[in-house]
Design a protein that fits this description.
By secondary structure, the protein is mainly β. The protein has one helix and 19 strands.
Length: about 375
């Protein structure tokens, strides 16, 4: 007998029954079919690539959040010397609630990679561009899609950086970016930092071309759980920081917004913070021996289920979806009276993610979205 069926007997003693059965009481059987509890769980995809998620038995609706990949950084190879990094744009966050699924049926999805950091050969200078990130989506690009962070462009390029696409789904926010030319210089570092990833109901922070000619106004504060832009860099003649990477955004529901350069929103992992040459202030807790390169033993912020809330090194953007910046100073060279700064490897944009949750009452941005609400039924890849 199936485990969800219970049988029990009862006496039936009506006059009709006794007459039909020669005056004897009869025993009839009643079956009660119990309803199995709705399944609860989640699957987090954070390694870029294509996947097919299979709906588990009993699941008929899911809620999904997607974050695109951030834009990569751009660096100039000036006849063998690495100068000038221009930063990438932040990616979009999008979510979709109560999407109907059929148990046992597969649903395609894609996790977007951050744009690869690129080096421009001397012959291609001065008009050049870097690599944009990739979109992330679930089921198809019309169900839930988060746009990628745009590529960086030099000050001499014919086009300016664009903001990531608007979220497709029930809500979300776009990434931060530089709405003018993303300033770079052949002998120095870029002024703008990487854009912050979008939040659950607001955009990541970026840079606006509102100041005097040749200057940018960086906005570190983001809204509605979004990531903050990377720290501003310096222009030629100023020996301080290079443009830093942007903050990312977490996938465990709405949390606080990034309020300082490179800080991630909604419990996402922070970006490295650009600092003066030789300084280690605000540098990352970074473990290259771990699978992800992050120190996942750091305590989570925002309670159970939140991602570890530690910093990356200077080249690491915030996860997920932060725009790339640059590593710190590698060396300096003296040419006559002038000192030129040479920088380390250029940064990649932060990878995207797709997280699927199911169970009664679970919905983004803030209803039972944390990992603890999956009651241990958690898988990821």
């Amino acid at each position: 007998m199936p485990s969800n069926i219970t049988k029990f007997g009862s006496l039936k003693g009506s006059d009709d029954h006794k007459e039909t059965n020669k005056g004897r009481f009869g025993l009839v059987t009643t079956e009660l079919h119990s309803v199995p509890p709705a399944p609860i769980g989640e699957h987090l995809y954070y390694i870029p690539g294509s996947y097919t998620w299979v709906a588990p038995a009993g699941a008929t609706t899911v809620s999904v959040v997607c974050v695109g990949g951030g834009g990569g950084g751009l660096q100039h190879d000036f006849f063998g010397l690495m100068f000038s990094t221009v930063s990438g744009g932040g990616a979009t966050l999008a979510y979709k609630n109560n999407f109907s699924v059929v148990p046992g049926q597969g649903y395609d999805l894609f996790v977007g990679a951050g744009g690869a950091g690129s080096v421009v050969p001397s012959g291609n200078f001065p008009s050049s561009s870097g690599n944009a990130g990739q979109d992330s989506w679930f089921n198809n690009t019309s169900t839930c899609k988060a746009g990628a962070g745009d590529a960086p462009y030099t000050i001499f390029a014919a086009v300016a950086q664009s903001q990531s696409d608007a979220p497709v789904g029930d809500g979300g926010g776009r990434g931060g970016y530089s709405n003018g030319f993303n300033v770079g210089h052949p002998f120095d570092n870029g002024i703008t930092g990487g854009g912050g990833a979008g939040g659950y109901a607001g955009d990541g922070s970026g840079y606006t071309n509102t100041g005097p000619p040749g200057t940018y106004d960086g906005h570190p504060s983001a809204g509605s759980g979004a990531g903050a832009a990377g720290a501003a860099g310096a222009f030629i003649g100023n020996p301080v920081a290079n443009g830093g990477p942007g903050g990312g955004v977490g996938v465990y529901g709405l949390g606080t917004s990034g309020t300082s350069h490179g800080e991630s929103g909604s419990y996402g992992m922070n970006a490295g913070v650009a600092t003066p040459p030789g300084s280690h202030v605000n540098k990352a807790i970074y473990n290259p021996a771990s699978v992800s390169g992050w120190n996942n033993t750091a305590p989570p912020a925002g309670g159970s289920g939140a991602a570890p809330h530690n910093n990356a090194d200077a080249v690491k953007p915030g996860l997920y979806g932060g725009g790339a910046g640059n590593t710190g100073l590698a060396s300096q060279i003296q040419v006559g009276p002038s000192t030129y700064r040479i920088y380390g490897p250029v940064g990649d944009g932060g990878n995207g993610a797709v997280r699927i949750i199911w169970g009664p009452g679970r919905a983004f941005p803030s209803s039972l979205c944390d990992e603890a609400s999956s009651f241990g039924n958690v898988s990821e890849n």
